[in-house]
Design goal:
With 169 residues, the chain is an alpha+beta fold. 43% of the residues lie in helices and 24% in strands. α1 runs antiparallel to α2. The longest helix has 25 residues.
């Protein structure tokens, strides 16, 4: 979640509320003015605080961080997999799911890894093999078969090179 946007909109809402209360003071809606003034000042304080957090409390910006923190060493398999995890899992999941002719079912949700194992397939070209066995394919008669699968992928680009799926765990 991008907290800077939360602070921005909180400040925007509080500022709008404060302006509304100032307008109410001048129109005297029938409420004692000290309550209107107190609420409008509270709204302004919240707005200033929220905008301050939005502008100054966000810490380092991405442009301030050196490139060495944003990239992995080409030989560091774990870093490459972790850094590109979303790209490679989505690419491999979709490629594996297309192999199912009559339906499929992942036996673990998105919270748990569907690819618990990974290794180099071709380190020189940056190809990694992800593998797992948390999938079932539906057969013609409607029965389910547990499947093992492997996916060869280039983590930096998300290009799936090959997918292998076989019955059994």
């Amino acid at each position: 979640m991008d907290w800077t946007l939360v602070f921005f909109f909180a400040g925007l809402a509080a500022g709008a509320y404060a302006i509304f209360e100032f307008v109410r003071i001048f129109l005297t809606v029938g409420e004692p003015q000290q309550f209107c003034i107190a609420r409008s000042l509270a709204g302004l304080v919240i707005a200033v605080f929220a905008f301050g957090l939005y502008g100054f409390g966000t810490g380092e910006h991405a442009s301030d961080i050196g490139e060495e923190d944003d990239e992995c060493n080409a030989n560091d398999l774990q870093c490459l997999v972790d850094y590109n995890w979303v790209i490679i899992t989505v690419g491999c999941e979709q490629a594996i799911e297309r192999k199912a002719e009559h339906g499929f079912e992942w036996t673990v949700g998105k919270v748990f890894s569907r690819f618990p194992d990974h290794r180099w397939k071709d380190q020189e070209n940056g190809v990694v093999t992800l593998s797992g066995d948390t999938l079932r394919f539906k057969n013609v008669s409607g029965g389910w078969t547990h499947m093992s699968y492997q996916c060869d992928i280039v983590p930096d680009s998300g290009d799936v090179m090959q997918v292998r799926v076989r019955a059994g765990s």
